[in-house]
Amino acid sequence: MHSPLQQLTQEFSLLKLRVYIQFQQDTVLPAFKGSMLHGWFGHALKQADEQAFFICYGEHDNQQPKPYIITPNADHKTDWHQHEVFDFEITLFGSAIELVDSLFIALKIGERMGFGKNRTPFSVLSVSSVLPTNQQTGIHTYTLFDAISMQLDSSRELSINHEIALQLITPLRMKHQGRIVKSNVPPLEFFLRQIQRRLILLSRFWVVDDSLLLEQVNQQLPLLGGFKSTAHCYFEDWQRYSLKEQKNLPFGGLKGQFSFCGEITESLPLLLIGEQLHIGGKTTFGLGKYKLIQ
Question: What are the Cα distances from residue 69, in Å, to 166, 218, 237, 268, 288?
Fold first, then answer.
């Protein structure tokens, strides 16, 4: 990993919290719970801290990404029973980590509000920090460099022909040539450019406003040799109900797995960064989460 990208990842802090809750009665929840969690947390945060709400949910410059992700777990079941435990993650980027106290107040307010249309009551069992190597009680931040350096070190011994796969955990909602990708996976170069763009925008607004450093990172696209790509993907067509729009809105994206094999080792830093930041549209709802397999 070249020095400008290394410097930026060392300065880019994250706080990833996993919240465990227990339902106090039977309930029915949507299959994909990202929209529900996003709306619920927004209402709770507004009551907890108006400034924090504006930072996370307010309208800003149209190039300014939101500094957080709310990610539901992978359980898509809709019927939940009393005493069952559900978990989700809230990730804060850069200076937004300073909002953590307001986040905890919002969790207590949200506990009283309940989940879903039926405002199902629940209790918060625990909140822990998810780190690159383990999960710990309390508030613990890490950097992008922490998250990717060990995996990069282990990759240095690999041969020039490298094989990697991306398993899409939540729908990947991405536009290519002006259209939502529903079948053919975009080229790896396009994918890498999207990760790079998200990293730079998040960094500019929430981490470090260093134009020279960010321009250096922007100029460092990975050098790729020959490689082959395969895709085993499908389009998962979610809908979400928008209270603001008073109608269902498209919320789907690619699911499945795609892989690349060949001279692609230089792509690993950005692919590992994308694993932490999510990519594509609707990331604040948890979309664009993937697992890198190598």
Answer: 20, 23, 21, 22, 10
Q: Rounded to the nearest 10 degrees, what angle do helices 3-11 and 188-206 cross at?
A: 50
Q: What is the pLDDT of residues 57-97, one digit of tens each?
A: 998 877 899 999 999 998 989 999 999 999 999 999 999 99
Class of domain 3-12+144-293: alpha beta
Q: Where in the chain is the domain with CATH 3.30.70.1890?
A: 13-137
Contact predicate 142/134, CB 8 Å:
no
The stretches of the chain forming alpha helices (DSSP H) are 3-11, 34-48, 50-57, 100-113, 144-155, 188-206, 211-218, 268-277
What is the pLDDT, as a whole number, of residue 273?
97
pLDDT band at 197 (very low <50, low <70, confident <90, very high): very high
Report yes or no on whether pTM surpasses 0.90: yes
User: Are 123 and 21 spatial neighbours (Cβ–Cβ below 8 Å)?
Assistant: yes
Q: Which H or E element spans position 68?
A: strand 68-72
| Distance (Å, whole) CA 178 – CA 169 | 24
Give the model confidence (pLDDT) of 235-272 as tens digits.
988 777 666 667 777 788 999 998 999 999 889 999 99
Q: What is the pLDDT of residue 28?
A: 93
CATH number of 13-137: 3.30.70.1890
**Nearest-CA neighbor of 91 among 194, 12, 172, 168?**
12
The amino acid at 168: L
